[in-house]
């Protein structure tokens, strides 16, 4: 299953966006308002839960400086990745594209497609909060 949300222009350089996103504690700023839990487990891993959803543990899997960050499920039970592609537009502006890739059976994919899409759209919208 592949999900992409519209790219988001951010008034920060590609380096500023990259530096913000590789510091995983900063993901708390991007989370939806209905977050029930957010906990940093180590420098590369965090756990979060949204209302009515199970806890999800994400780990920093890959980083290409100023261009790409890949977070993946810490568990192999539901393998998926969440990727942020960063494109420099100028010294003070960049564009962030979020994509989700997961391998799920048809029933599971049908159940999670809307919540995952909404979650990613919120993360993208909240990129305005980068400090």
UniProtKB/TrEMBL annotation:
Gene3D superfamilies associated with the record: 3.30.530.20
Listed InterPro entries: START-like_dom_sf
Superkingdom to which the source organism belongs: Bacteria
The name this protein goes by in its record: SRPBCC family protein
Native organism: Croceitalea vernalis
High-level lineage: Bacteria, Pseudomonadati, Bacteroidota, Flavobacteriia, Flavobacteriales
């Amino acid at each position: 299953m592949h999900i992409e949300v519209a790219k988001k222009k951010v008034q920060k350089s590609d380096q500023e966006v990259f530096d913000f996103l590789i510091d995983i504690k900063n993901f708390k700023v991007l989370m939806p308002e209905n977050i029930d839990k957010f906990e940093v487990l180590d420098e590369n891993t965090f756990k979060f839960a949204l209302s009515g959803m199970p806890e999800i543990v994400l780990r920093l899997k890959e980083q290409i400086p100023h261009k790409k960050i890949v977070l993946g499920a810490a568990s192999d039970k539901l393998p998926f990745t969440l990727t942020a592609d960063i494109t420099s537009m100028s010294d003070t502006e960049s564009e962030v594209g979020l994509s989700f890739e997961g391998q799920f059976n048809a029933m599971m994919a049908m159940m999670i497609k809307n919540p995952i899409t909404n979650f990613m759209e919120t993360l993208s919208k909240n990129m305005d909060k980068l400090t």
